[in-house]
Automatic annotation (TrEMBL):
Annotated Pfam families: MerR, MerR-DNA-bind
Keyword Transcription regulation: yes
Residue intervals of the HTH merR-type domain: 1-70
Keywords: DNA-binding, Transcription, Transcription regulation
PROSITE patterns in the record: HTH_MERR_2
InterPro entries xrefs: DNA-bd_dom_put_sf (IPR009061), MerR-type_HTH_dom (IPR000551), MerR_fam (IPR047057), Tscrpt_reg_MerR_DNA-bd (IPR015358)
Protein name: HTH merR-type domain-containing protein
CDD domains: HTH_HMRTR
GO molecular function: DNA binding; DNA-binding transcription factor activity
Signal peptide extent: none
Length: 132
């Protein structure tokens, strides 16, 4: 059994993160000592490591919660993981497309601003963001 401080040091997490995971039910409420200190099992630590790994892959806490429900129910099949990762990849591709579109819209504005650096009137106001 491990206390919060030890778990947070071992995993490189802020103790508040562990409390938050407990509050949103990503991890079950740990056992407590008579004095009220939380005690985490090795199984709890493995679950937190799983959550940390999933977060590092860009999964949201809601997506992780969905996967953990399947895992807890013994229904985390490769098909289930495949479906969720495929959706995540599709979401990432959509975000990349949106960001590329935004980049392409901003670049001409940046160039227009740069052209106006040497405007003869030093009080000239930049209006590139006001145009349609």
């Amino acid at each position: 059994m491990f206390q919060v401080g030890e778990v947070s040091r071992r995993l490189g997490l802020n103790p508040q993160t562990l409390y938050f995971y407990e509050r949103i039910k990503l991890i079950p409420s740990p056992q407590r000592t008579v004095a009220g200190y939380r005690l985490y099992t090795q199984e709890d630590i493995e679950r937190i490591v799983f959550i940390t790994r999933a977060k590092s892959l860009g999964l949201s806490l809601e997506e992780i919660k969905d996967i953990l429900v399947l895992k807890d129910g013994g229904e985390l099949t490769c098909q289930a993981v495949y479906d969720r990762l495929s959706q995540k990849i599709q979401d990432i591709q959509e975000n990349i497309h949106k960001l590329q579109t935004l980049h392409d819209e901003l670049l001409p504005l940046l160039e227009q601003c740069h052209r106006n650096f040497d405007h003869p009137d030093p009080t000239h106001q930049c209006i590139v963001l006001e145009k349609d």
